[in-house]
Amino acid sequence: MLDWRHGWILSMGSLKTLFVCLVVFTVFSLAFIMTALRNNSMARIFKHNDKGIYKLLHLKHSTIGNKENTNISAPVTSSLNVSSIHSNDSLWCRKKILKGLDYVVIYNAVPKTGSRTISSVARVLFNHHKRKGRSLFIPYTLYRDEPRLRLYYKKNSAGSTLMRGHSLYTPMLDRKYVYINMIRDPVERYISHLYYSWYGDSNNMNKKNETKKNNIDNCVKEGRCIPTGYLPFFCGFHPNCSNATDRWALEKSVTNLDNYLFVGLTEKMDDTIMVLQQLMPDLFKGLFREYKRKAASLKKSYSTIVKQPPSNKTIAKLKENMVLTYEFYDIVKERFSELKECLMQRNTRDQRVYPG
């Protein structure tokens, strides 16, 4: 009997020792896991391949100067690194698709990139096809007034709305606000904008009497035309954003790209409208079809009347003043191409015809 009790006591002691060891092991394991999580705090999106191996695909929020990021634009030779979105990642583009109608689309348009074309087609959809939605123009007086601009957005946020205007980026925390934009080759855009300011277009005839002596070559040669690019539209209201040669403005603009649903390209207008319809299929259903129906008349209305081709010397001079803008342009081109490819592959897998 004594031997049995003695053995029982020894067994209880062993169990207590084992329990203590398990507790210590658990504590150290949790500490190790928490440390690892702190050291790797940025969320990552993983893709599962056919062999069951998870592959690191894309950092959810791109960061400037992060060594893990992939430089997606060859011309960018500085320390600016932008993570690349692999075009075959269906998860990434699927997460960008916004279904439903209750969105306020803010189109803080860069001048002379085709924003009037998109807003005109959207207006036809909303008005003529009895779609619940409206198209508004952001007053130019709010261009550099951030508090009033925010107030305007909030006052006009009821229902489905597309707001277009030449306003600077300002963050809106409510997820119902969706930013879109479009850009084009910086030199081509600047020249188009300059001639439009001198001579207008078919939809704006009051500038046609501008002296014909105005041309881009003379203007640049005389130092009257100094381009600043379009980084401020993406950078925002910070004082440094207005400095076309400040690399901080470029880095901030690239960071803010993550807050846009997408940024399209004027040179690829068809693809841009396809992508917009794909990303917001309920709000912009039929947008591409309506655009193709009106494309010829819209181009005639909104094309600049007078535009003399610049000399090679002028082009070189303009590019010297817009080095950072070209870096931004190349980054957007790469991202847009990858987004388009991602959507096309998704539609193929879902047996749908692009653009849907």
From TrEMBL:
Keywords: Glycoprotein, Golgi apparatus, Membrane, Signal-anchor, Transferase, Transmembrane, Transmembrane helix
Compartments, as annotated in UniProt: Golgi apparatus membrane
Top-rank taxon, per record: Eukaryota
Keyword Repeat: no
This protein's record includes keyword Transmembrane: yes
Family: Belongs to the sulfotransferase 3 family.
Name of the protein in its database record: Heparan sulfate 2-O-sulfotransferase 1
